[in-house]
From TrEMBL, chain A:
<feature type="transmembrane region" description="Helical">
    <location>
        <begin position="12"/>
        <end position="32"/>
    </location>
</feature>
<keyword id="KW-1003">Cell membrane</keyword>
<feature type="transmembrane region" description="Helical">
    <location>
        <begin position="238"/>
        <end position="262"/>
    </location>
</feature>
<keyword id="KW-0812">Transmembrane</keyword>
<feature type="transmembrane region" description="Helical">
    <location>
        <begin position="39"/>
        <end position="59"/>
    </location>
</feature>
<dbReference type="InterPro" id="IPR001851">
    <property type="entry name" value="ABC_transp_permease"/>
</dbReference>
<dbReference type="GO" id="GO:0005886">
    <property type="term" value="C:plasma membrane"/>
</dbReference>
UniProtKB/TrEMBL annotation, chain B:
<dbReference type="InterPro" id="IPR001851">
    <property type="entry name" value="ABC_transp_permease"/>
</dbReference>
<keyword id="KW-0812">Transmembrane</keyword>
<dbReference type="GO" id="GO:0015658">
    <property type="term" value="F:branched-chain amino acid transmembrane transporter activity"/>
</dbReference>
<feature type="transmembrane region" description="Helical">
    <location>
        <begin position="274"/>
        <end position="301"/>
    </location>
</feature>
<dbReference type="Pfam" id="PF02653">
    <property type="entry name" value="BPD_transp_2"/>
</dbReference>
<keyword id="KW-1003">Cell membrane</keyword>
<dbReference type="InterPro" id="IPR043428">
    <property type="entry name" value="LivM-like"/>
</dbReference>
TrEMBL record, chain C:
<dbReference type="InterPro" id="IPR006311">
    <property type="entry name" value="TAT_signal"/>
</dbReference>
<protein>
    <submittedName>
        <fullName>ABC transporter substrate-binding protein</fullName>
    </submittedName>
</protein>
<keyword id="KW-0732">Signal</keyword>
<feature type="domain" description="Leucine-binding protein">
    <location>
        <begin position="62"/>
        <end position="406"/>
    </location>
</feature>
<dbReference type="InterPro" id="IPR051010">
    <property type="entry name" value="BCAA_transport"/>
</dbReference>
<dbReference type="Pfam" id="PF13458">
    <property type="entry name" value="Peripla_BP_6"/>
</dbReference>
<dbReference type="InterPro" id="IPR028082">
    <property type="entry name" value="Peripla_BP_I"/>
</dbReference>
Amino acid sequence: MLEHVLNGLYYGSILFMIASGMTIIFGVLGILNLAHGELYALGAFSAFSIIGFVAGQVAAPTGPVTAIVFGVVVLAGSLATAAVLLPVGGALEAAFIRPIYDRDEVYQLLLTYGLLLVLTDVMKFVWGPSPVDLGVFGGINEIPTTELVGIDYPSYNVFVILIGIAVFAWLVWFFDRTKTGRIVRATAINREMSTAIGISTDRMFTLVFAIGAFFAGFGGAMVSIGPGSASLGMGLDWLVLSFVVIVIGGLGSLNGAFVGSMLVGVSSRVVTPYYPQLELAVPFLLMVLVLLLKPEGLYGAWGEIQ
Amino acid sequence: MSRFLVDRDGETHLRLAEGMELTKNQAVLAAVGLVALLIVPDITRFTPLSFTAIHRGILFGLAAVGLNLLLRHTELVSFGHAAFFGVGAYAAAVLASQFDVSSGLLMLLGSVLAATAISVLIGYFVAGYLDIYFALLTLAFNQVLYAFVLQSGYFNYSDGLNVRPDGLNPPALFGLQLSSTGYELVLYYLTVVVLVVSLLVMWKLVNSPFGRALDAIGQNRTRARFVGIPVEKYVWVAFVISGIYGGLAGGLFALLQLHVSPEPTLYAFVSGEILFMAILGGFGTLVGPVIGGVVLVYLLVQAPFYIEYYNALTGLMLLAVVLFLPEGILGSIPKIGTGLSRRRRDPGLLREDVATIGSSLRRGVSRAATTVRIIVFGVN
Amino acid sequence: MTTEPLAGTESNGIDRRTLLKTVGGSALAVALAGCTELLEGEQESAADADVPDEPIESGLQTFTEGAPSVLGIQAEYGAETAVRRINENGGIAGREMNLDVVEEGGAYLTNYQQFVDEGKDVTFGPISSSGHAEMVPEIEAQEVINVSTDGTVTTLYEEDFPDVTYSFRFQNHDVMEALAAVNQAVEVLGADSIDTYAGINPNYAFGQDEMNLFSQGIEKLTGAEQVYSGFPDLGTSDMSTHITEINGEAPDVVFSSCWGGDATLLLEQGHANDMFDNTELLVGTVLYGSANDMEEDLVDGPIYSGSRNFYWGEPSTDRWSPAADLVDEVQSEYGVVPTAHFMSGYGAVTAWATAAEKAVSLLGRWPEQEELAMVLENHGFFTPAGYHTMGSDHQGYSNAHFGELTWSDEHDAAALQDVNVFAAKNVSPPPGEISSDWIGSW
């Protein structure tokens, strides 16, 4: 049972890295970004190139020490990958999203769907139509973690869970404790007021979109260094699941996205062995349940960052 | 003036029934459209255009017409219309493969009944919600259905069901067991009849007091409630009507494809496509969604045969619609029409158009470049 | 002639006439069998037949992008290679062949219809089993021959469409690889040591079909008991739940029909979660389909994989030059080693092309679809994989391959060793019989 829960937390952590971006983008910009899954996929593909390069500079791990070195290099590569998504996200926001803030939400959906399709083909152009696999998963698992406390569980999963928590902590810190974060929240609550006191809302919106892209890209890098591979269309299922998560948690709520991700992750993993036919349906049943009982979501934020 | 021609604001209108009138231009367009619909089978025989793709596009367009009742009038964005389309398609398939029903029309009846039932149920839960919550809730119900069908042996999992009562041949239409080509042709004209009747019904409906009440609900629910409109009940009814259109389209789709599986009928992205068809064709119009359906389906089905980057082609077209043709294809025709005639008089305007598009692209690029510069180098 | 086809080709022990007779009598058949060097100076046999000049138009639908393209692109390479060899050898009865390729995902019916609208003489594909099931009645209605590359669910021709005319399938169907897996497991562990088994299979008709047949076979041969059967979603991103369950149950044998990205995911997560310490043996029918996407560390452990009707190293390439030539050609042309799905494409084209040529020489003119379909029934032909027949049930029958997963430094890809070759009659019922009845009668 413990392992099933850990499996769920691992799955939930990846989900959170994607869903957190969606929820803050919705919370601040008011846009439901259908292209968010493609930013995640872009992260996975970029990780293949970037981490593939940096990991190639160090020797494959042979013992615990070299494994740790290897792990640090891979982590640095993941951060570099995510950093690439910052300007990409910013440029997408500035060029495409900015002109449509005042339009009906159907146009926002249509535009981001158009971006989804275009981004898919950009990745097809750059990395080709077939899946690509980074192949550092085995090396990361050489790093001793759970063996130290006498259980047997893949180190990679442990790292992903820890990183998921770290990302959550950083986001909370950023929005709660930093000046910029508070300004972003103020902008989300009242755009006119913020403009009046001299805040460039354009800047803030770009920043938020870029941060969202950063974490989606980071999530993609996590998947790429994991057991899976980067492939076209990999973003679609995660996109739909991210909807589920942010609705369960409350649109725009960071805490909600975190709890929602873990809830979806753990419940689907724990239920699967006993009721295999529910594997796919569990997240959606949860979502319907939450919407009917508490329509504003568990942390009912109604479009403000909390 | 005769019974069918009336004079309004100095213009002659063609009057079909109470509240259903067309201007001269609209009447001409409608007639052209109808003729075009009728000769599609002949056109496709002599051109490389694909008959099935157009037929399929019309069906999705019909579903989008239903969705547009919610989108245009109550201003509710449904992201779950594939639920009705899929249920309609599956109803026909279940009747054919599990109950040996051989009549296509009976299957269609089944589709409508099943879609009604499911939209009554979902509508009951969602009618009170607004905005993005309405969209996400409809999406959730849609995905629950999808997951349920995908896991169910009765619906044969992801493989789906054949719509061939005897295992090999298409169902009978009007009591006739037709050959493959004959079947396709008869089914097409059945589709055209269904489409035209559905459009007329929708037209009548939106011009009825009920339709006006929906408009009032769309503009301001509180005010609508204040003037005595039972808002939730009316939205529920509109939702069911809209679902019936989806189910009917789905049933016809089952008869056309003769095979129904979850992904092309029930997946959340099919819902998205139905929604985007309405916008693409022009959701401010009655017929726009049909045109959007034909165009989008045609792109999705045919583009892979001609270019490698077919997703990007569709994507760029959608971006262009959002940025340059917000009223959609049909909705922009009047504007394009006047624009064209003005440009015929003054060709200089054309240069301005190019300049406008050019500068808007340039602005986009420069915004993007500035942003990248700021993010990368941190300079203002 | 099944396990060591044409073993004497290198030793000059076989003369040209015998060879031609063996492979079907025509230069084209020899070329597609991969033995062109034996043909120097041979006359074109069907040259005086009355055939049209214009090239043959054909269409292939396959997975060209995304996760399933791991298999789909191999099939595309295979079909392209066959077409290239056909054209380099003067075409089919003098007619050149063109091949259009289109993405199959979600568009099986419309693709086939579009191909027919475009006037294709023949269509190939798809990979997807559900797509294939969807297409069969349409193929029968449109009456343009389709030779499916895969879409291998056993019940398709046994139960759903027992009487078809224009729809064919080249690749071995599921029962053959599932029973090859049973035999392989029994051979490795011994029937007495197999008491429990489990399965992880993709959640759709193919995965269920394979698991079902494997269960029947292994229970019949060993009396083993099923302790777990999981069906992760096709193209899933996480199988850890199922692997955790396997670790808990510690079955003697784990069976899997996961393919493409699912196969590598299973191996990656299996290793990371020490699954191979908790089971004696993993037999996977299509694991080797991902040979070009595996890292060296993945092939460690008691892992055996099927390779459908073709494994490039069997018979050994130093004894069987057609396979050696093919591996060289594929490596230089595409930079990969050919897998069974390469043969799916190659063999589907070859089946049709050799039958078409046979029909021309029988009729003295180009055949109608119906005539060609009749020739294809019970048609036998060679590829570098050996000898194949197209059964009267329209199912292709060839040897089934199964071996231990290992690593080839020479090709920098996964390889198989100690490959077992199972003749079709040992792992599948005769045409017309239902597989599960047949297994029941063992």
